[in-house]
């Protein structure tokens, strides 16, 4: 199974690809790193709802998608699961 990956931007302008652990409109949990050196981070919507932000080890991360776009992504994912789910 492939894990969903998203690109987040660091405070110094670099882009990191992180693995999504959990995604909802209220928060996105991501993991940075691999193995025993991984770190979890919670990204929450900004005040205007145009991005998600969080910090890990004192550094800020920003995911530049709005709450509306994330809700649409989640709905699309659930629709795909319902389409491909075998009925028994």
Describe what is shown at a glance.
It is built from one helix and six strands, in the order ββββββα. It is of the alpha+beta class and 88 residues long.
Summarize this structure as a short list of keywords or feature phrases.
88 residues, 6-stranded antiparallel beta barrel, globular, alpha+beta, 20% helix
Your description of this structure?
There is one protein chain. It is built from 1 helix and 6 strands. It has 88 residues and is of the alpha+beta class. The protein has one domain (5-84). It has a 6-stranded antiparallel β-barrel. It is globular. The mean pLDDT is 91.
Topology:
Layout: E1 5-10, E2 15-23, E3 28-32, E4 39-45, E5 52-56, E6 59-63, H1 67-84
- What's the quaternary structure here? single chain
Number of helices: 1
Distance between the amino and carboxyl termini: 22 Å
In helices, the fraction of residues equals 10-25%
Mean pLDDT: 91
Order of helices and strands: EEEEEEH
User: Looking at the structure, what is the overall shape?
Assistant: globular
State which percent range the strand residues make up. Answer: 35-45%
Give start-end ranges of low-pLDDT stretches. none
- Sketch the major β-sheet: 6 strands, antiparallel, barrel
Give a count of the beta strands, DSSP E runs of length 2 or more.
6
Q: What strand order characterises the main sheet? A: 1-2-3-4-5-6
**Structural class designation:** alpha+beta
Number of domains: 1
- Alpha carbon gyration radius: 14 Å
């Amino acid at each position: 199974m492939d894990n969903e990956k998203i690109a987040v931007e660091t405070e110094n302008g670099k882009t990191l690809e992180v693995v999504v652990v959990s995604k909802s409109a209220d928060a996105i949990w991501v993991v940075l790193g691999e193995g025993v050196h991984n770190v979890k981070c919670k990204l929450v919507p900004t005040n205007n709802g145009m991005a998600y932000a969080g910090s890990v080890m004192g550094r800020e991360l920003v995911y530049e998608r709005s709450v509306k776009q994330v809700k649409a992504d989640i709905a699309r994912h659930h629709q795909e699961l319902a389409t491909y789910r075998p009925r028994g």
